[in-house]
Predict the 3D structure of the following.
Amino acid sequence: MFCVHCGTNNRHEAMFCKRCGGKLIKIDHHQPTPVIETSSASLPQPHPVVYPVSKKQKSRQPVIKRLLIILAAILLFIMIAAPEANAYLGYFNGLSEAKKLLGNGQYSDAISKLKSINQRLLLPKNRDLINQTLLSDQNIKKDDDIFQQAKQDEQQGNFDDAKKLLTTLSDKKEYPALADVIKEVSNVDDAISAKTKADADAKIAAAQTSQQKAQEDAARSATAAAESNARAIASKAAADAASAAKAQSDAAAEANATAAAESAAVAQEQAAKAAQQARISFYNQLTSMLGSINSGTGYYNQAMADFNSGSNYVAISIFGQALAVYQGVYTNAGNLSSTFTGMPSSYLLAAQNLTSAANDYVQATNVMINNCSQNVSSVVKGSYNDPALYSSQGIPLAADVQQFLSTTTP
């Protein structure tokens, strides 16, 4: 059955058109149509047949139009939004991959990944986030370059340069490897302490060797000169006495006795001069050693000032110089008694007091070097790390030596 409205072929039993929804009119083609003969003039003029459109047909037409409009809008949105969606997909993936690379320590790769993100279709806030992240990663990369340079300096023995670089990183909380930086600072501090101590020990050993050799040479020279003079005097006196005895063999006994006495007096006088020369040499060496003690005390006081101001590494070096002086005096003062024979007891006592004073100063200096090496910030009075336990004994002994020198004329 064909619809009289749209011409669509429908099922015979259908009542409405399946396309336009109009009501179908059934026509029986087997029933004969009666023929009425009339003149054309008497027939009424035909009017066009108007079939009413159903409400269902009217309601479907706007729905279809709306569906087409929605479909077109969806297609248009996809065409416009697809590039932006792709840009944001690259944005989120790029940030995620850069974060993973940064966590693995691949700072250069993380920076390259951030730079590769296409920002053209992104919102300003997303662009700002990329730029901020890029700036942060670049700063981390700079800090890592500094850290690598510091480790290289440490391997090459440039501990001071390494310490300066590591110090600049110690407050960089945003740097992922900050824990490694702190550990490396401790390693460099230990290396600096070991190097400083080794240098101080080397200087002390060299100073001790040099000063001991000089003192030994001076003592040997003085002893040899005194002995040589004494032998010459005695030999000459003996020769003079023999010559006088032979020349005066015919003289009276009184004349011989007088000549012998005079010769003996001369020999005694020469021996006395030799003994005086030995005392002068002993006195001068004792004076020089006391001067060295005072010089070492100057180093010691300067080092204490550096220690009190927190400059432990500088203090270790200067304490080392004081220690070298004190040890030299201790060795040489102890050798005076064996180098010179026949010295008065007051001279020997002064040398013994100077040896003891130098030993006390050595002990006090070693205590302070140990305090500096262990980074002790202050000295507790009366404790094991108080150098006064030793220096308080050495001071009066050195004062006794000074008193002896000022009241004695060799």
Notes: The chain is about 75% helix and 0% strand. The chain has a mean pLDDT of 83. Residues 178-247 form the longest helix (70 residues).
